[in-house]
Amino acid sequence: MCGIVGYLDKRARQDSPVGKVVLCMLDALSCRGPDSAGVAIFCEPRANWILQLKLPEHAREDEAPHIALEILRDQGAQGQGRLVGAYLHLEFEAPSGTPELERILVERLPGSEIVSLGHQLEIVKQVGSPAQLEATYHVSITVGTHAIGHTRLSTESRVDLSHSQPFWAHGVPDLATVHNGHITNYHKLRRQYEQRGYRLYTENDSEIIGVYLRDQLAAGLSIPDALRSSLDDFDGSFSYLAAWSDGLAFVKDRFGYKPLIVAETDEFVAIATEEIALRRSLGSDFVAKEPAPGTMKVWTVTAVQPASA
Amino acid sequence: MSFTINCAGKSTRQINRELRVAVESGQREIVVRAPDARHNLGVALLQPVHVVFEGSVGYYVGGMMDGAHIDVRGSAGWGAGESMMNGTLIIDGNAGSGVAASIRGGTVVVRGDAAARAGVSMKGGTLLVGGSCGYMAGFMMQKGRIVICGDSGEALADSMYEGVVFVGGTIAALGNDAAIEEPTPEDESALADLLNLYSVPRPASFKKVVSGRKLWNFDKKELDIWKAAL
Predict the structure, then answer these.
(1) Do A41 and A52 belong to one domain?
(2) Minimal Cα–Cα distance from A4 to chain B, Å?
(3) DSSP result, A154-203
(4) pLDDT digit string (tens) for B67-88?
(5) Contacts across the A-B interface (CB distance below 8 Å)
C-alpha cells in the first residue's frame, strides 16, 4: 500500500496553500498507510540554506543545537537554528556551498541525519498519521509553490522517522521523492552505489531512488532524463513522484502495478494514489485520469514540458 | 420520485447500508450525491434498481452486482464492475485499470478512456469503451465481447481463449496468440445496435480480434509459441 500525493501551482504563486492541499490529500489516503506521514514543501527561493536536521535520539536539547551551529561556523557558515518537533531547523549562509557539510555534521553528531537541504525544500515526517503530523508541524498553514507527501504502510523496513518518506536525495539540494511500491533490484543497486562511495542512511528501498537520481545528475543527465531512464533501471512495482526547485514529475512502472491518478487544470497539477484524495482536497470541477504504465511526465511551476516515455 | 443519499461526511459502510435499506424498502430510483471517489460503492446490488452516482467513484463500483443499472456521472477507479453477473454500468468519464475484469454478463460502458487491463478474464457480457484503452485489454478473456472505439494499447487480447474484441482505432500491438479477422455482416449490425443503444459515436470501421487458438493445446513442435507466451 502506501499513499503518495503531489500538488503544483502552475501559476507560480509563492503563497499557494500547498500545505493545506497535500495534508488533505494525505488524510484521504491515510488508511493506505497508518505507519508514518510526511511532506516535502517548496517555498519561494531564499538566499540562505534551509537544513532540517534530525537530532540523535537522546540528544540533549540544550547541547545539540549548539554543536550543530559550531560545526556550521567551522565551515564558514553563519546562521541560526531552532528546535521544531524532532528537528533542528537551521537557516544559514554558506559562501562556499555545502559539499562537506553533511559528512562532517553526521560525523560530529553521531545518529543525526540531514532530512532535507536546499534553498526552497523543507521536509517534515514522523511516525503516525497525517493528523498527527499536522498537530506537530502545522503543515496546513505552510505556503509555497509545490509539494509532495507520503503516508506509509511499512513492508520491508522498520517504522521510524528515518525510514519515513519523503526522502531527500542526499547531496542534491532541493530534490525529494515519494514512492509507492517496491524496487526489487534495490539490494543490487545499493551494493553498486555503496561500492562507488555513496552512503545510504536507511534500509528502505525507496531511498535508492534519490541515490539513483543523484548519480544520473552527476553523470550529466537532466532531471527529466534521469527520471525517464529510471523506467528501465528500476525493477519491481513503483509509482513515484519527484519534486525539485521548480518541477514535479511522476514515474510509473511499465506493468502499472501501483495506482496513480493525475488531474491537470490551467491552475494546478494534482497527483495522487487514489482519486479520493483529489476529490476531497480539490472538489469535483476537473477530470482525473490514470496514466499509462511505463510513462512519466514533468510539470514546471511556470510552464508544462511535454514528456513521456 | 427518486430517493437521494448524500455521501457528505459518511463512511462507505454507512452509504452502502443506506443504499441497501432503500433497495429493500422498495426504492427503484436512487441518486447518490457527492460520492467523491469513495471505494466499493454499490457492490453486490442484486435487484433491478437504477442508481446514479453524481460524481466520480473509487474502486470496484458495482462489483459483483446482478441486474442493477448504475450510472456514474464522473470517472471510476480500479476494477469497476468487477465480477458482475448481469446489469448495466455506465461510466461517463474515464475508467481506471481492470474495468469489467472477470464479468460474467451484463454491459459495462465507458464513455471516456479505459486504463490498463480492461476486460481481463471476461467470462461473458460486453465492455464498450467510447475512447481508447491501455495495454493488456482482454488478457485471458474466455467469453464475451470488448468494443474499443478508439485506440488500443499493447498486448491486446493476449492469450485469450475465446470471445471477441473489436477496435475502431489503431492497435499498438496484438498480444500472444491474438489474431485479426474480418468482421462479418452480423458483427457489423450487432456493433451498430450496441453503439446506437448507448449513443456512442461510431468509428469509420472496426478491426476484429479473436483467439488464434495456438495456445489451446500443447504441441512439442510449437514449443517456441509457448515460450513466447509464457
Answers:
(1) no
(2) 16
(3) -SSS--SSTTSSPEE-TTSTTEEEEEEEEETTHHHHHHHHHHTT----SS
(4) 999 999 999 999 999 999 999 9
(5) 66
